[in-house]
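Researcher: Structure prediction, please.
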Amino acid sequence: MPSITPAVKSMKAAIALMIGVLVFAPWARAGDTADIEKTLAGLLPGKTPDRIVPSPVPGLYEVDFGPQVFYVSKDGHYLLDGDMVDLKERKNLTEQRRTVARVKLINSIDPATMIVFAPKQVKHVVTVFTDVDCPYCRKLHKHLSEYERYGIEIRYLAFPRTGVDTPSYYRAVSVWCAADSNSAITEAEQGKAMPMRHCDNPVDHHLAIAHQIGVTGTPTLVLEDGTMLSGYVSPKELHRLLDGKDVDKKVAD
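Model: Predicted structure follows.
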């Protein structure tokens, strides 16, 4: 087998990381994919993709590992890592597939492990990966009452950007271990000192999900349809976007 380029090696590592803790649905085979299966077995031994299906381009197959989507030629010789766009319909077909996978991952999380701020009448639900030490996360949290006024429920998941065994990580653990985690995260987002708390907590699981989805910074917002937004989005902007009136460049590819 020809040597694998550094880019493919990097992608292999990323895919392996993302699928390492997932339990996928049965492999949906379509057509003759024997050569593709053989190639994937060499690249990712012991790992089974979500599905292998024909793409809209003849001879090219879509391979899904959760939100990680790439394309392989029928003979298993060529691999394309990038977005497929239908120019006629002006649709990003790859991103559409990613959004479906993101929804499944978010829905797999126990809501009891989230910190939720809900208005009396919920119109939209937005899941936010937050770092309590992130300035823009603090800005978002400062405007919670405005999000609620638009009927937007904010559900927090922990994503300390500095990783495990760091001050931000332990501050997140302390928040999620508090008797009143809603009050605790508000204090943390205000920059107040946090007493160290320890308990069985979901921070590591939230981090794993974030990596699988492709979160790299905070805040990262995941909408109900799986659309992912990177960075702070004001209440007014988010309201417009959720109502389908204004999709801007914040939408992550």
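Model: The first helix runs from residue 6 to 19.
Researcher: Thanks, that helps.
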